[in-house]
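Note to self: user wants both folds in one dump. Writing first protein now.
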Amino acid sequence: MHLAALSIYPVKSCRGLALETTALDRFGPRGDRRWMVVSPTGDMLTQREIRQMALVDVGPTAHGLRLGTADNGVDVRTPADTGNRLSVRVWGDRVEAVDAGDAAADWLETQLRRPCRLAFMPNDSIRRVDGAYAGSGETVSFADGFPLLLVSQASLDDLGERLGEAVPPNRFRPNLIVAGSEPFAEDGWRRIRIGDMEFDVAKPCSRCVIPSIIQETAERDPRINRVLAGFRRRNGQIFFGQNLLYQREGELNVGDPVEVLA
């Protein structure tokens, strides 16, 4: 088995970036979900509420990132840790963030058609992974709950066969795609090594409405969730992919060998 693809999503729920290599820091893959669109009260906004977020491209720049659509865009400078602080909410967590300024907020409000701000997680912000799964005080960015999400290519292919057409990986927004396993073999993994990094397989990923959103058009397509519900539903939830944890910083590269340790 090997690591076949690697992606990050700099702004939570906006478009991702495919990478060949990435460093892992205490937040997850470097740059992954360090930014988040929030309501005026600091609550996270995602494709669950605003499908048009799927159409917002995100690209790195020398001083931050560029948000763009097919028509226009805006450059956003990474705010200093000493910038205008605000408290934001990710599910049940309240987290310290820094406001990214009026230009970013105005552009996003125009594109998404609702009041919002862009928040950045500064280097000194601490958001703990749920202690029911993390025993070493692991921290995470604005990701839903864990620093890494893994899916296998075989599981995507199996789902595509059931659906009758190939399933784009971006419907599940994974960080890691592993090739060379059997379909859903990852359900039985408890600890794995990728390159020279070791990971605990913390829990299966429960899926929301986002896999039913076509990422290229923001249109609804509920077929994937309906097919998954037919064979991946447990206790009223649909599961696809695995959440990972790790205890030290390191590096991952496309092509790295993947070994099941337990």
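First done. Writing the second protein, which came from a different request thread.
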Amino acid sequence: DSVLDLGTGDGAFLERLVRAKRITAEGVERNPELVACCIQRGLVAHQGNIAEGLDQYGDQAFDYVLLLGTFQELIVPGDILHETFRVGRRVIIAYSNFAHYRVRLQVLFRGRTPLTNSLPQPWYRTANLHFLSILDFGEFCRDANVSAVRQAGFSARGAVSFWPNLFAEEVVTLLESGNSARGARS
């Protein structure tokens, strides 16, 4: 399998993935210091903005495109998602669930944008432009004509299967373009 990791950071996750699964992989990262870290790890990494950096890749060049924790930072997520499906067959997106019950309680009782383990910075210091829930993401996918093949929610205690929109802090979703997917399992 081949993987393109968008917003790869220092490459630690991508390095583990390459070693564990014996895949070919590349990363795109905007921070030149983090790109240097990736290269020191022996990874192929390109410096660039995700919004502008995918034109260097051909159609269906990768089996998977990863957006792990970067999706909510995108200015125009629909355009980027469309482009990720041009360069990859499947897309894996991970994001923080803004509908987690602790987030809801902080907004309700404090009347302020919440701070959590997955959202540890105040709103004016975070790179997040979009705060979304699992339900919001599902609606976005329907509008973008992509299907969730698999979806998993997680909390500090592990996998969440009961009411994930309320109890999952983080969500990982495997997407396929169009109607070819078999339906989501949450």
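Dump finished. Worth passing along: The longest strand covers residues 146-155.
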